[in-house]
Write a structure and sequence with these properties.
mainly beta
Length: 198
């Protein structure tokens, strides 16, 4: 039993420390390439975040910028942030809550195979609190709903991702699909395109 754990540990260590040696037969052509490849993708997460990523690949490395935008905030009606002070003791609060605006950061990945890239990312997720009100007279908004909100700091957001690339087309570009997990957005999928060599 102990030997089995030791063997698994050595295999994992070899994958992390010497990936270019272990996969040299499938990545040689890419490693020798000095061209830049630009890619972009869009996706969605189970926590209702729209994910947008853009990256540059050179050799076996993937360098990216990532963003997740919250599309379901819980705020209702018109914003009165510039008119009503959050600290005022306001009557008639119908409900209140908080959410993360999104997450924005940097990604780093590695092509373990010609068509398979694994990586991770680190970013920042701003936090916001809100209070919803309802005005039965509908003077402040047509629906009667309005809200006030304020920033409330944020947190570090980390993520892991994988991209699977399809065969190259006539222009040298190729489509890819991927999956990711992040602290803020949770599990998500995305579809993208990597353009030909520059």
């Amino acid at each position: 039993m102990r030997q089995g754990y030791m063997k698994m540990f050595l295999i994992c260590a070899a994958l992390l420390v010497f990936p270019h040696r272990l996969f040299s037969q499938t990545t040689t052509n890419r490693a020798q390439s000095n061209n830049f490849l630009i890619s972009a993708d869009i996706g969605y997460t189970v926590n209702n975040y729209l994910s947008i990523n853009a990256a540059v690949s050179k050799g076996l490395w993937y360098y990216g910028f990532s963003g997740q935008i919250n599309v379901s905030t819980g705020e209702k009606g018109k914003s009165y942030d510039k008119i009503i002070n959050w600290d005022n003791d306001l009557d008639g609060v119908s409900d209140a809550g908080d959410y993360y605006l999104g997450a924005f950061g940097f990604d780093l990945g590695y092509y373990f195979l010609e068509n398979l890239c694994f990586g991770g990312g680190l970013g920042y997720a701003p936090h916001k609190m809100y209070r919803n009100f309802h005005d039965d007279t509908e003077i402040l908004s047509q629906s009667g709903w309005y809200h006030v909100s304020k920033g409330d700091g944020g947190r570090i957001d980390a993520k892991a991702f994988v991209h699977y690339f399809f065969k190259k087309g006539l222009t040298g570009g190729r489509f890819y699909i991927g999956g990711q997990y992040s602290i803020t957005g949770s599990v998500g999928i995305h579809l993208g395109y990597q353009f030909g060599s520059l």
